Amino acid sequence: MSELPKTVRLVEVGPRDGLQNESAHLPAAMRADLIVRLADAGLTHIEAGAFVSPRWVPQMAATAEVMSLLPARAGVSYPVLVPNEKGLDAALEAGAGEIAVFAAASQSFSQRNINCSIEESLERFAPVTERALAEGLKVRGYISCVLGCPYEGEIDAEAVAWVARELRGLGCYEISLGDTIGVGTPGQARNLIRRLARDVPLSELAVHYHDTYGQALANIYASLLEGVSVVDASVAGLGGCPYAAGASGNVASEDVVYMLNGLGIRTGVDLDRLVAAGNFISEQIRRPSRSRVALARSGAKASEVA
Ligand SMILES: CC(C)(COP(=O)([O-])OP(=O)([O-])OC[C@H]1O[C@@H](n2cnc3c(N)ncnc32)[C@H](O)[C@@H]1OP(=O)([O-])[O-])[C@@H](O)C(=O)NCCC(=O)NCCSC(=O)C[C@@](C)(O)CC(=O)[O-]
After folding, report:
1. Is the ipTM of this complex over 0.95?
2. What is its EC number (predicted)?
3. What's the CATH fold of domain 9-305?
């Protein structure tokens, strides 16, 4: 496989993966405001939050309130993370149409993130996915640490493939491969996708790369060349990972859209509006955007003024 896809579906994870790790705990109305701006920019899959323990991740408290503030919009979905049946109850109550369960390819990360082994997590997800599917929800599956773990180092692609098969067996329509600490390089990303493609159709794989080592765009490009066409990204490069010290945010959505535009790949996203949404949230959390595109544009504006 060496042809690039003609279109890429972006899954915007900034309001969840991003904000869950920002020290600023934003009120629900501001989180909803960000999500609306992202939808205005043309994003159709925007993670709205997580129904997890507020003791574990206080930034995601009030996800139900965020959901209640989101206008229904044709063609736009607002998935939420759910770790167990309690989370599913809350998601159903909030009217979610899509949930994501999240496993890991590393036992140590699984323990630190959701307080159980990988096997236990899959057992926990079984009734969650069964009930969610019966209720008509879509279910996405995440796998963390696919290219490295903060506690165990290298991760065997066979371990990733096993978890992917299990999640698929539970009914996940798509498996998102998380380089949680952003250590992977393009050759590793390519080899992983090739290995995974033996178990999961390429059309059901998504990539979710953090940018800690500055490799995320290159890893996305390598994955696109292998036939992946769904990419997770976080506006303004928000975030990191609460259980992976030093991990930076996901690759910035603005930078991904800029690259895809340059490759002639359609996303349906308006880059100007996306940059504006990223600048908005960066101002709210009082730190500069981590999007290189946003920074380049603000630099260009500043020099115009001077
Ligand atoms: C899974 C648990 C709950 C286990 O945590 P636990 O302590 O083992 O759970 P528990 O069942 O013993 O419950 C402990 C307390 O949490 C409450 N609780 C229990 N469940 C819920 C729930 N759903 N919603 C709200 N509250 C809940 C429960 O009611 C109880 O409250 P208490 O009686 O002590 O007052 C906990 O470990 C947890 O919430 N972890 C979430 C961690 C998390 O959100 N991590 C970030 C998301 S994963 C990620 O970012 C990676 C990803 C997806 O982006 C991909 C990548 O980049 O790698």
Report:
1. yes
2. 4.1.3.4
3. TIM Barrel (3.20.20)
